[in-house]
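Annual report, structural modelling task.

Input specification for the magnesium ion complex:
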Amino acid sequence: MLKGTAASEGIGIGKVMVIKEHTLEYTPKQIDDVQAEIQRFKKAVDTFCENTRAKAESVRASAGEKESEILLGHIQMIKDPFMEGEIEKLIQNGTCAESALENMCDTFIAVFSAADDELTKQRATDLRDVKTGVLSVLLGVEEVKISDASKGTVLVAGELTPSMTAGINKENIVGIVTETGGKTSHSAILARALEIPAVLSVEQALTKLEDGMEIIVDGSEGEVIADPDKTQIEEYSKKREKFIEERRELEKYRGQKTKSADGIEYQLCCNIGKPDDAVKAVECDGEGVGLFRTEFLFMDRTSVPTEQEQFEAYKKAALILKGRPMIIRTLDIGGDKELPYLGLEKEENPFMGFRAIRYCLKNRELFKTQIRAILRASSFGEIMIMFPLITCVEELRQGKELVEIAKEELKAGNIPFDENIKVGVMTETSSAGVIADILAKEADFFSIGTNDLTGYTMACDRGNSDVSYLYSPFQPSVLRLIKNIIECGVKNNIPVGMCGEAAGNKLMIPLLIAFGLTEFSVSAPSVLSVRKTVSEWTKEAADKVAEKVMTLLTEEEIVNYLKSVAK
Ligand code: PEP
Ligand code: MG
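The model returned the following structure:
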């Protein structure tokens, strides 16, 4: 059995089709007629852009807007004036188009690949894809065609690039296995969008798996079985049926309210990073957006987005949501989220440093621009503002003060906005958890960010495998903070949501019901399963479980107990 990252749930049983990238070989040569070579390069770029646009169209139809945008992003990459200019400079010096393109792309690929965060790493994959695409045109080589795959095919590749996946027909492809890529890579996102089981980062997949080989892909467990025997095929066929049945069962919850077994209503929202993600949130039956991570609007560009650009993005999401509520979190950069153009200094300890609300309060113009954009969008939907990484009440006060200043400016300019816009706190630091009683008196709502809350409380970096065993929201300390935050919110009559990963965790849900949470915000595909779990608990039963949990001493005891009572 081969192990990898479980990137898209489900079981696929089929035959391997290995995707080999063509070797794009050429002999670099010195160019005399540089103008003609530049024209040749430009023509190749035009053809590449045309092909990519066509692919993006077909992907939009099969997998959706987001996947199609990834491909359109490739056009922006090669059309980037700096990139084009540098390549042309190399050609001017007599380098052939192929070498010039490769040199430039490789330089950036090396920079992107060396980054710590997955998003920047992802750009290396994109650029590699762009390079292959343009080189193929220059050399007149046909690209790999996945659309020819027959029914019951499992795709095996080093890396599934966005352009390769354009041809995937979900009727024929039953599984995906790659040698690289994590849960948030393009391959993973696309596999989930198409609901194709996928296991990524399988070491030596290309050496161990051969064309035509029978194979089982368990995308739920992250396992791949090559050449399975009869018993294994039977076992996994049953597992596949069970998975499909469970998915079908979840459909019963579509269009329903989110209610506990004894009729208490909850709000079940989605987390988004771009306005278009709101489409998916609505499609997946989300009741609103509980967290709009606005930093994505600031990424993949070379300067801060203007007020107008931001306003249009927030308005777009609000219009897609058609009156459903949306919490917009103000810029959360620093830590693991870098924005090179802001020129932030490298810090010894970025997670403890100059990030999120701390950065925004020191860069008031940038912050006020964002607040004005959010306020302006608030006349197009039910929008709320949320500040990240609050650790003390002064930060909340200063943020609110800026909201008031922005409101005055808009009023003076006769620009409409929601005068009663709510301003809330993302409770994601241990300090916010401890002083939730103080913050609750001045915030309009809380949303618990368990991703950071867990890290800060346990003083552990989830990305560091030596200490990741400590990283669990079920640690008694983290649970005590979650309980305190919710109870302080309840006491002060403000809604408390949870937008960290833990909100979608089946084992966490009874505890949240018991403590008095009012809103869950999860990834769009988790909406129906969270609605199902909520419907299985009464407040009384959840209270009993929570009472017992709070007497347990270790994370292991807590998780085992919660597993034993899970529905
Ligand atoms: C969190 O910290 O729980 C959270 C939702 O925010 P992010 O993952 O964007 O830091
Ligand atoms: Mg956070």
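Residues 34-62 form the longest helix (29 residues).
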